Amino acid sequence: MFRQNRHDFGRISRRGLLVIKGVLNSLHIAISLQILSCLLMTQQAYVGYPFPQLIFVMGSENFASGIATTVLVAYIATRCRPPFTATQYAF
After folding, report:
1. Would you give the DSSP letter of residue 83?
2. Which residues of 38-74 are buried (b: 16+ CB within 10 A; e: fewer)?
3. How large a percentage of the chain has pLDDT more than 90?
4. What does the pLDDT look like over 5-43, one tens digit per residue?
5. Rounded Cα gap, residues 14 and 26, in angstroms
6. What is the DSSP letter of 80?
7. Which of the four, 22, 44, 64, 83, has the lowest number of CB atoms within 10 Å?
8. 55 close to 31: Cβ distance less than 8 angstroms
9. Domain range annotation of the chain
10. Residue 67 in contact with residue 14, Cβ under 8 Å?
11. Residue-wise pLDDT tens digits, 34-73
12. Helices vs strands, H then E, count in the chain
């Protein structure tokens, strides 16, 4: 049950970001989240591996990667003609 709620949160947050901010603004936010998650990984390397911080860093990395992937697919879809979106994305 907990896993389902967690996946719903990710799906709602990614879709909400795209709907509220638009694709280009969401792309900037996703890039910023990726940079922030890289900085958290760097901090983790300097601090060591305390378990609560490791959970937070890995969770934020997964969340930022999910946001970035969703926004990138949406951006690619806006650059393509609608009948050929799936084909051009496969290339």
Report:
1. G
2. eebeeebeeeeeeeeeeeebeeebebbebbbebbeeb
3. 29
4. 555 555 555 556 656 667 778 888 888 999 999 999 999
5. 9
6. S
7. 83
8. no
9. 2-90
10. yes
11. 999 999 999 999 998 899 999 999 999 998 998 888 888 8
12. 4, 0
Amino acid at 10: G
Specify the amino acid at residue 65. S
CA–CA separation, 44 and 80 (whole Å): 39
Task: Give the distance from CA 32 to its chain's centroid.
Answer: 10
Nearest to 21, CA basis, from 8, 38, 33: 33
For residue 91 the two structure tokens come to: 């290339």
- Indicate the pTM of the whole model: 0.69
Tokens of 89: 């994305």
**Band of pLDDT at residue 2, cut at 50, 70 and 90:** very low
CA distances to 18, 26, 63, 69, 70 from 14, in Å: 7, 9, 9, 10, 7
| Residue 27: both structure tokens together | 């792309």
